[in-house]
Amino acid sequence: MTATIDKIAWIHLDSGKILSTRSQGKDVYYIPGGKREEGETDLDTLIREIDEELAIAIVPDTATHVGTFRAQAHGHAAGVTVQMTCYTADHRGEPTPSSEIAELVWLTYADRDQVSPVDQVIFDHLHQAGQLH
């Protein structure tokens, strides 16, 4: 079976660390974001998902595309990939675990083995760009 899960993610870096989340019942960290709903643009998905997960407001006109990354989907059958379209953006409010989020953490490149496969690809990209230490 081949399928692609279409996700949008928010890259929030501070002092060489990246904000990541762990959902209830999961054993790896994920960059905040989620699946697009029918009819949503990337920006619509980004704003909705980040509000749902972190209870903060993305500032729409500051959203900047970082890249689109693909890898095997964590916890899915072989051949199921995730496509993660990533953006940076300014925000209003203090990130707070909300909805299905159990924990917020700041990770470095040394924590790469604790994130999902697609996030590992993103960690590599950010590390090579000198943004993730």
Please describe what this structure looks like:
The chain has 133 residues and is α+β, with helices and mostly antiparallel strands. It has a single domain, classed as Nucleoside Triphosphate Pyrophosphohydrolase, CATH 3.90.79. The strands form 3 sheets. The chain has a 4-stranded mixed beta sheet with strand order 4-1-7-6. It has a 3-stranded antiparallel beta sheet with strand order 2-3-9, with no helix packed on it. The protein has a two-stranded antiparallel ribbon with strand order 5-8. The mean pLDDT is 96.
Percentage of residues in helical conformation = 10-25%
Report the end-to-end length measured between terminal Cα atoms. 37 Å
Biggest pleated sheet: 4 strands, mixed
Tell me the number of helical segments per DSSP (H or I, 4 or more residues long): 2
Low-confidence stretches: none
Number of strands: 9
Secondary structure category: alpha+beta
Number of domains: 1
Average predicted local confidence, pLDDT: 96
Q: Could you tell me the strand content as a percent range?
A: 35-45%
